[in-house]
Specification:
Helices cover 27% and strands 24% of the residues. The protein is an alpha+beta fold and 599 residues long. Strand 17 and strand 18 form a beta hairpin.
């Protein structure tokens, strides 16, 4: 931040590094100090950036370096005032980064241009990428390539799921980021005696049609084989098949969905649910904020990829990226809070409802009655591929034809196409619940945090009994591990939620502790799924909760164990305070009041 103390760090090249920003007549001088170089040959490749401009430079010599920042707009000054200058250190030397970029391009070149097929070298590069970065090993198959043609069409029923991945760079990147073993999804549906594949996709070098579409089965098989798709068939369970209202789903498709554009406007927002735990590799929210702002002016699709979604969340129109940041800051909403506002199925962009592939499949299930009374409390536009095929509507161990068993011994589902074997852990394991998938992490390579949250959600939903706290030691950070909604008031203006909280000693936990994702039922029978990053602090004798963006504050008060939790806890809006002192709590049950500005 300008005119504040320098930021200090140590890295592999310089033991002591610091940068300070000084505002001088509307301009800023960034003074970089690099000392105690480690080794004869080393370098720091640093990127300095605001939300609109950037400067990259290689530093090899110790000493003081000054970078002058001139001509900042009012919006850029506002960004710097709230967020400061960002400094990123690239992992590796400049030649190493050039080599890394080249290797990344090899994942795409030849598969996303020219012929529809995927060259073997590209497929193998993508297999290596998935194995090394997502623990997904797609071994080569020796048979079963033509099963889609050989199996009778009656094998495939309305509502069945087609799990698809094309080793073309794009699908593997999506799978890696989402924590799925697919890059594309589709649904089989019978209509007037004809079997179709219904999907939302985009026109490419390997696919002739864009948007929400249906393709006759045999035509789809031919196109998919030419494109080198790998495809697994996942049928509905018998119970789900009886429940699925095919006519209602077809009515949604024929009367509204067919012909809609592919869902570019909310593609990112289906995936980004948390402040930090969805960004793969070295990507961070801070880098994302810079990239969006810088690329806005030079990439025409910016409006489709992220900008329309930002405007939708702010209820604004035609603001550019930096203007969205400024408007959000004016309302006390930081970047991560803005982009993690859950997408709503009721939102309509300039081109209507936006659905990427898995969202379309989920919407067909939703319109077909699969979510029952919770239909309005589940947002398909928050789902990823894994979120859909993990629903327990799908059979985790169906009866499959012998030809499928022969082609892929030991595999639970039939892979009907593809040169490389797909595995799909988690199929049919999750029961739906209100507000599911609105705050889900997806960090590679093992996605352990997501799996832990899924287990927590299941355990909490099965046992909503009164919560007891565990003892904590003095001067330790405390984390909320389990919670239960008492009531929720007012979706507009200030939203106040009162919760029952279990406190846990976090002696062995990191400073920022992840809050479990829970299925929790409120006073009026509504359900709420929550996930937060939090720390607790003490000021003037009261205990306060402080989030990363410091836009929400809660207050804790002690309650007796026999208190009726559904009637306990006063609702109140608390002033935000930015303090980070350690706090200690005695064993017991607490009531937590959360005030969140949503205007």
């Amino acid at each position: 931040m300008p005119d504040e103390k320098p930021v200090i760090w140590s890295d592999a090249c310089f033991v002591n590094a610091a940068v300070k920003a000084d505002m001088i007549d509307g301009a800023v001088n960034l003074t970089l100090s690099l000392e105690d170089r480690q080794g004869v040959v080393c370098e720091d490749y640093l990127l300095f950036a605001t939300a609109t401009t950037w400067h990259a430079q290689v530093f090899r010599k110790p000493g003081t370096h000054v970078i002058q920042w001139h001509g900042m707009s009012a919006d850029e000054l506002n960004d710097v005032e709230h967020n400061g200058f960002r400094v990123f250190r690239f992992n590796g030397t400049l030649p190493e980064m050039v080599s890394s970029v080249y290797e990344t391009l090899l994942l795409f070149v030849g598969a996303d241009t020219g012929n529809a097929s995927v060259p073997e070298t590209v497929a193998n590069a993508n297999r290596d990428f998935l194995r090394d970065n997502a623990n997904y090993d797609m071994v080569e198959r020796t048979s079963g390539f033509q099963l889609a043609e050989e199996l009778p069409e009656s094998t495939f029923q309305s509502g069945d799921f087609l799990a698809i991945i094309r080793l073309d760079g794009i699908d593997p990147m999506l799978a890696w980021a989402m924590g799925a073993h697919t890059g594309h999804t589709a649904m089989t549906v019978w209509e007037q005696g004809q079997l179709y594949v219904m999907e939302s996709t985009n026109r490419t070098n390997y696919w002739p049609t864009s948007g929400v579409q249906k393709t006759p089965w045999k035509t789809w098989i031919r196109q998919a084989q030419e494109a080198d798709f790998n495809v697994v068939h996942i049928p509905l369970t018998g119970q789900a098949r009886q429940q699925f209202d095919v006519d209602a789903a077809l009515s949604f498709f024929n009367n509204y969905a067919e012909g809609l554009d592919y869902g570019f406007n909310n593609m990112l927002y289906c995936w980004i649910d948390t402040p930090e735990d969805n960004f793969p590799g070295s990507l961070t929210a801070e880098m994302g904020m810079v990239l969006f702002g810088v690329l806005d002016a030079i990439i025409p699709p910016a409006d489709k990829i992220w900008l329309a979604g930002m405007n939708m969340r702010l209820n604004t129109t035609d603001l550019n990226t930096i203007q969205c940041y400024a408007e959000a800051e004016r309302r006390g909403i930081n970047f991560t809070s803005l982009i993690t506002i859950p997408e709503q199925d009721s939102w309509r962009y300039s081109n209507g409802l936006n659905m990427v592939c898995d969202v379309f499949v989920c919407m067909m299930l939703k319109e077909g009655g699969m979510f029952g009374d919770l239909k309005d409390e589940i947002q398909c536009t928050e789902f990823t591929n894994w979120d859909v095929y993990s629903l327990d509507f799908y059979d985790p161990s169906p009866s499959i034809p012998q030809a499928c068993k022969d082609a892929d011994p030991g595999m639970p589902h039939c892979q009907i196409m593809g040169k490389y074997r797909m595995t799909l852990p988690g199929v049919g394991t999750i029961s739906y619940f209100s507000h599911m998938r609105e705050h889900c992490p997806s960090l590679a390579p093992d996605y352990a945090m997501r799996n832990e949250l899924v287990s927590s959600a299941r355990a909490t939903s099965e046992n909503e009994s009164s919560i007891r706290a565990t003892p904590s030691s003095p001067e330790l950070h405390i984390a909320v591990t389990t919670l239960r909604t008492i009531c929720e008031i007012s979706p507009l203006g200030y939203k106040v939620t009162v919760l029952c909280v279990q406190m846990k000693d976090t002696r062995q936990m990191p400073k920022r502790t992840h809050l479990s994702e829970c299925k929790i039922r409120g006073l009026l029978g509504r359900q709420l799924q929550l996930q937060r990053y939090l720390a607790l602090s003490t000021k003037d004798g009261s205990t306060e909760y402080v989030t990363e963006n410091l836009s929400k504050t809660v207050i804790l008060r002690r309650t007796t164990s026999d208190e009726n939790l559904l009637e306990a806890g006063d609702t109140k809006t608390f002033k935000m305070e930015a303090h980070r002192k350690k706090a200690s709590f005695d064993e017991g049950t607490y009531i937590l009041g959360l005030a969140e500005s949503v205007d």
